[in-house]
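ok so I'm stuck.
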Amino acid sequence: MTFAWLAFFDAILAIAMIAAGMVGAHFYLLAPFMGFQLFALGFLLSILGFFVGLLAIFLTRTAQARAGRNRAVLATVVCAVIALPLIFTVLRSSKYPPINDITTDFDHSPEFVFAQKMQHEPNRDMKYDKAKYAARQQAGYGPINAITERLSPADAFARVTEVAKAIPTWTITYSDPATDTIEAVATSKLFHFNDDVVIQIRPTPDGASLIEMRSKSRDGIGDFGVNARRIKHFFDRVALARSPSDQNTGDQEDIP
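replied:
not stuck anymore, here's the structure
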């Protein structure tokens, strides 16, 4: 009977913590990482509740202890419904390397100018750390290359800026036509995590423009592949923005 009640309370508390984490972060009642921590604790509690529920089902198999069986079954099912999809998601995300800073150029990565002022850790170093990230990015994702646009740097900068402004989850925070650099904050829809993005246009010897990009999370160690996908999706958007005359002239450079 005791284990049946414990499993039931675990299930209720798991639901409450997961809901509080998501709702609190989404409506800005909690900091994003705090909301995610509540969500994660609820997830861990659901795993605990699942195993306690299984134990309770076993202990209530006799006629004398039958009174708590329905409660144990209900708690086990609820915890399983919460835990199993999340376990599957975590297992799928384990293929991503434990890094949260992705760039298209390991040796001369675009660097943040304005983003440093927006960090919740004022002394945080935003400079790209090749020794820490490059090998793991290469091993985890393979080449993530800059793209070449057959445009002048000024025209490429205008196109990139237009594409960036059209992304609903991005906010442009810095734009410098002199260096053809823009920075943006990308905000996740549920927990409102903020990631920093910097894009730089570099001229090529043949008069075209190379678009380099870097995406870096503010929280956590890993990013579940979000930053790499962001770069690839942005380049896809740039390709879609090409006019019919230059639709087939943009390409990706083989830059490590």
